[in-house]
Task: inverse folding
């Protein structure tokens, strides 16, 4: 299959694309519905590839599209080598990869190796085979504790609430770090290892350019699955175990046998920069999502600390940083930045429904886009970021679909609010998400009226719109090869201002304070997130300049 040509850096040297790429995350279910059944699909995505190529991103990362009962939006995979009929067919996937490549867009698919779906044939075989059967060794089956085995084998909690163990009809327990419908694989089993190498080959042969790895640090569990309470050692018994690195080394070896710079990106919520960097050693993974920026409050000091720590950690292993503001698991940053507490935390329940100033959040989101796209390395744009979408918080409870909502007993309102179908055009819901005369309403039918002004059509060609700001920034980033991978030099600035210069003399100034700040004399403005005030940069705004 035809591949996308290599990119060049500021010195005209060929450089692997993933060191500087801007990757657009597609959540297929909510991107575009081609066949009118209310669920986004490959057909819809294919009709909108022009939008993505025109936006100026380099690659697409597709959240899972595999056969799945969708107990966790597709992160419960029943067949790693086929497409769920709700999303389309394998032939359509191949056509999409081909068409994307011809538009200069690379394709990164999501790989979910920590767990599968309870509907996966190997898990079904394990259930049928019964206690003690070898089929059960591919998962973590254990007898329960308590007089009659009625208690879970250890005290691990599931990330979605409740214990990480569920009991089968025959009385044994199996481990699931997420929903009960997502049994964890046993990575000590050679067949599991061989299977994933084969799955990687399958998609590489189909022409994908890379893989996003789900919960990268969870695959290997501590021997004996000890209780977590009172376990003070690092690493933690269910994450960041030493053995996980050997798996990624074997994956890297395989990837390196393919041409055209295929790459991995790790989903890694590791907070310790050095432990984080270990995954990015030269013989392991290429890149990892760098979530500290996403978690950070809107503060120059906090941002600067994150940027410095990130760059220092990545320098240890020679890997490029990546930058992320939002994804399908986190509160959209327009909403976060419009709250009094602008940080992101997993205590979503405590933050849900707090007062939000959307105008302020939007201003800051515009500034954050210019900041992120000027930082060294790669960047991720989550679908709808480019439109300035906000979190939909007022979803009626009966429409909520995220398993975290049910598993937490209605405490955590879940992640549906950032997964609402995209608004493309028109005056009425679903704003072009589904074709006219669709047979069903969108799977999550809660688009706000206010998105009428935020559709792609409404914002296209409108000077100063959120979408046009992203388009301009992305096109400039391509035209100015000093942006992307490479060094950053801080300039002296007021405490509430970030001011740095990139190779080629591009300078980015971000004002996170409450007062306008003067801009350096003699510099030429390239792009600003807000109108300047008598040559001053207003609060909550960013500018790219050339010179000095
Ligand atoms: C991380 C994914 O991003 C999230 O959506 C999913 O629920 C968990 N991993 C479990 O696969």
Result:
């Amino acid at each position: 299959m035809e591949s996308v040509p290599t990119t060049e850096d500021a010195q005209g040297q060929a450089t692997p694309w993933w060191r500087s790429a801007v990757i657009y995350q597609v959540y297929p279910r909510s991107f575009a519905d081609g066949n009118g059944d209310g669920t986004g699909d490959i057909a819809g995505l294919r009709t909108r590839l022009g939008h993505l190529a025109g936006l100026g991103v380099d690659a697409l990362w597709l959240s899972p599209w595999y056969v799945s009962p969708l107990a966790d939006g597709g992160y419960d995979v029943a067949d790693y080598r086929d497409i769920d009929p709700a999303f389309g067919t394998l032939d359509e996937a191949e056509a999409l990869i081909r068409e994307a490549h011809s538009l200069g867009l690379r394709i990164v698919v999501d790989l979910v190796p920590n767990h599968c779906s309870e509907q996966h044939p190997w898990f079904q075989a394990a259930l049928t085979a019964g206690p003690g059967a070898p089929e059960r060794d591919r998962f973590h089956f254990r007898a329960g504790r308590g007089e009659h085995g009625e208690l879970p084998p250890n005290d691990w909690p599931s990330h979605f609430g409740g214990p990480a163990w569920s009991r089968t009809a025959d009385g044994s327990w199996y481990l699931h770090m997420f929903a009960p419908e997502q049994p964890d694989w046993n990575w000590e089993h050679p067949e599991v290892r061989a299977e994933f190498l084969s799955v990687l080959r399958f998609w590489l042969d189909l022409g994908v350019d890379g893989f996003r790895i789900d919960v990268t640090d969870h695959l290997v569990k501590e021997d004996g699955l000890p209780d977590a309470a009172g376990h003070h050692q690092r690493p933690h018994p269910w994450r960041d175990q030493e053995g996980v690195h050997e798996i990624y080394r074997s994956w890297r070896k395989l990837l390196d046998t393919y041409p055209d710079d295929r790459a991995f990106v790790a989903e890694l919520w590791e907070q310790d920069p050095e432990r984080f960097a270990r995954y990015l050693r030269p013989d392991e993974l290429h890149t990892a999502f760098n979530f500290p920026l996403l978690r950070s409050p809107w503060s120059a000091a906090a941002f600067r600390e994150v940027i410095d720590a990130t760059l220092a950690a990545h320098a240890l292993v020679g890997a490029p940083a990546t930058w992320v503001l939002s994804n399908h698991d986190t509160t959209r940053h327009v909403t976060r930045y419009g709250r009094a507490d602008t940080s992101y935390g997993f205590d979503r329940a405590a933050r849900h429904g707090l007062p939000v100033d959307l105008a302020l959040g939007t201003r800051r989101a515009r500034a954050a886009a210019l900041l992120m796209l000027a930082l060294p390395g790669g960047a991720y744009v989550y679908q709808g970021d480019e439109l300035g979408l906000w979190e939909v918080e007022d979803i009626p409870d009966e429409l909520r679909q995220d398993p975290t909502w049910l598993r937490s007993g209605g405490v955590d309102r879940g992640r549906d609010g950032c997964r609402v179908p995209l608004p493309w055009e028109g005056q009425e819901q679903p704003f072009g998400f589904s074709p006219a005369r669709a047979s069903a309403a969108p799977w999550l039918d809660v688009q706000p009226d206010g998105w009428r002004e935020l559709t792609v059509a409404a914002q296209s060609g409108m000077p100063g719109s959120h979408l046009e700001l992203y388009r301009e920034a992305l096109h400039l980033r391509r035209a100015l090869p000093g942006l992307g991978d490479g060094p950053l030099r801080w300039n002296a600035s007021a405490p509430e201002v970030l001011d740095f210069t990139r190779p080629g003399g591009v300078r980015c100034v971000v004002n996170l304070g409450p007062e306008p700040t003067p801009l350096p004399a003699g510099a030429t403005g390239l792009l600003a997130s807000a109108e300047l005030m008598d040559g001053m940069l207003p609060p909550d705004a960013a500018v790219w300049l050339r010179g000095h």
